[in-house]
Amino acid sequence: MATEEAGSALSFHPMDQFIVKPLFGDGPINWYTPTNVTLWMALAVVGIYLLLVVGTRGRAVIPTRMQSIAELAYGFVHKMVEDVTGKDGLRYFPYIFTLFMFIVFANFLGLLPRAFTPTSHIAVTAVLAMAVFLTVTILGFVKNGAAFLGLFWVSSAPLALRPVLALIELISYFVRPVSHSIRLAGNMMAGHAVIKVFAGFAAVAVISPLSIVAITAMYGLEILVSFIQAYVFTILTCVYLKDALHPHH
Amino acid sequence: MATTTHDAAGAAAGHAAESAGMPQLDFASFPNQIFWLVVTLVAIYWVLSRIALPRIGGVLADRQSAITGDLTAAEEFKLRAKEAEAAYERALVEARSDAQKIVGQARAEIQKDLDAATAHADAEIAARASESERRIGEIRAGAMEAVVAVAREAAADIVAAMGGKADAKAVAKAVDARLKG
Amino acid sequence: MEGDIVQMGAYIGAGLACMGMGGAAVGVGNVAGNFLSGALRNPSAAAGQTATLFIGIAFAEALGIFSFLVALLLMFAV
């Protein structure tokens, strides 16, 4: 894309912000190398620690601001799990809350200027989604045995249609982790890339005010998207978990 | 395809070849990301399940029980207030009936005094009336006698003036007869 | 020369793939609009259905994101 623009003032590098680089030096990236991924994930852990542990250290009955936020997050996810999966889904609440807090913090920290967004990488979201998929599938078989396959056998449909529906259900079941991961990564990547493209336009004096307004607007949208995507990821996890616990339609 | 998209000055100088195109599809960085992601998730899970979630859950439960306790206390206070109100009402009713009784007693006493005074006054009035009657009777009797005497005298004088000789007895008889008639 | 034609095709394909995002936009608008009209008819039931609303929007949006991804792949990875 930028190849053609090499001579002009415009140069777009919307994808540069997603490059994984080592924190120290220029060596190759081994599996253990501390990279910017490590940095921003560590920042997410620190943020979660500050909010949920340091923020609640008072254990006050009348909460401070930080404690209110922590309780709000707790109550939000707790209610979501309880509403979608039912009472027996609450056993998996810490796991779902971990996913939610990680995604929220990674998304919001990624909105800082010059930041790196771990959740914009397919590798990260694919691991998250595959973890959910494998957990849910194994849990379904452990809890229900072969009855878990009833998820694919729509007993309310006419008998002739059932094999076709079973095939469709099976395909949609295996597409779940794909859409689950690409939705999150794609949303984060798209927003950041669009902001970067507008930032590239800001180099031209005539359109730079417009481009700055556009960046501001996109930034607001991205704040919304950051939260909504974390919410959607979490609630879909809850829905899949409900399917595993109660496979009958 | 010529994807020498990135400036050499960009930080990716070392792996310009790998990071060309979409960094998301740079498979060389996958093990690294996955490793650190797993580390991060385990750290978050550990912190949450060991420290944060029991604490927040405990705080929420405490608050719930405090609210419930306060509500029951408030209910108790309300009940007590209602009892106090009932007692007050009762006291008010008693006080009112006492007052009624006292007023009744006072009225009865006053009535008694009044009756006694009235009776006394009536007796006095009756006594004075009879006294007056008696004196009026006396005065009337006296007056009658005087009239008779004056009439006899006048009759005797008239008889004398007409040249007769007045017989006192006869005159008196004649006057008495006239007065009776 | 041949590389140029391939690149041209990739860019045209990327532009075409972006049209799919319009479909996602229509879908998301449809979901939200229908939710709103239903919510105005029966506001008391609306609060319980926001989760369903977001799931519906997420499903509709995911397809737009897929087409965006295809565009990105054509531009940067092919």
Rounded to an integer in angstroms, the radius of gyration calculated over CA atoms of chain B is 67 Å
Summarize the helix and strand pattern of chain B as letters. Answer: HHH
Q: How many DSSP H or I helices of chain A?
A: 6
| Gross geometry of chain A | globular
Treating each run of at least 4 consecutive H or I residues as one helix, how many helices of chain B?
A: 3
Approximate strand percentage of chain A? under 5%
Helix- and strand-based class of chain A?
A: mainly alpha
Instruction: Please mark out the parts of chain B with pLDDT under 50 across 5 or more consecutive residues, or reply none.
Output: 1-19
The average pLDDT value of chain B, as a whole number, equals 84
What structural category characterises the helix and strand content of chain B?
Answer: mainly alpha
The dominant shape of chain B is rod-shaped
Helices and strands, with pairings:
The complex is a heterotrimer of chains A (249), B (181) and C (78).
Chain A: H1 36-54, H2 65-85, H3 93-110, H4 122-144, H5 162-201, H6 208-245
Chain B: H1 16-19, H2 30-161, H3 168-180
Chain C: H1 2-41, H2 43-46, H3 50-77
Helix pairs in contact in C: 1-3
Labels describing this entry:
heterotrimer, A: 249 residues, mainly alpha, B: 181 residues, rod-shaped, disordered N terminus
